[in-house]
Automatic annotation (TrEMBL):
It comes from the Bacteria. Pfam families: PAS_3. This is PAS fold-3 domain-containing protein. It comes from Mycobacterium branderi. Residues 31-117 form the PAS fold-3 domain.
Length: 139
């Protein structure tokens, strides 16, 4: 979904929310981030090599254990996951984010990794954020 559709369907404008994609290769712990996800973390697109340690280094200290456990379980079970947590970008700004991911299979059904979306949710009440995320993801 592009930010124009996001704005029209949720009332969130592209200055206050951003959505990007990620790919997580479970076997070699390699990540790919879209330009939007790189910017959420404070990086210029194409200037970082995403990894689990890098991702976890940006997670707010109060949310670290939950996110680390979620990623550990995703690696172990290879099942879909979601997480609502805070990240701290390179400029020390805190972002409320929602990550959702599902397994990606090859033609034989082997799970190759996880692909998903990361939404940088605007400030507001938890109920407001939840409604906006549901509207944006049709969940």
């Amino acid at each position: 979904m592009n930010t124009t559709n996001l704005r029209a369907e949720t009332g969130i404008d592209d200055r206050s929310a951003e959505m990007g994609w990620f790919w997580f290769n479970i076997d070699d712990d390699r990540w790919l981030w879209s330009a939007q996800v790189e910017r959420m973390h404070g990086y210029q697109p194409g200037t970082t090599a995403p990894s689990t340690p890098l991702l976890l280094s940006h997670v707010h200290l109060d949310d670290y254990r939950q996110v680390a456990a979620t990623l550990h379980d995703a690696r172990r079970t290879r099942r879909p996951f979601s997480s609502q947590h805070r990240i701290v970008d390179t400029a020390h700004h805190v972002h409320d984010v929602v990550m959702v991911a599902a397994p990606c299979h090859d033609t034989d059904g082997t799970i190759l990794g996880m692909h998903g979306l990361c939404l940088d949710a605007p400030a507001g009440s938890a109920d407001d954020r939840r409604q906006r995320v549901r509207a944006a993801t049709r969940c």
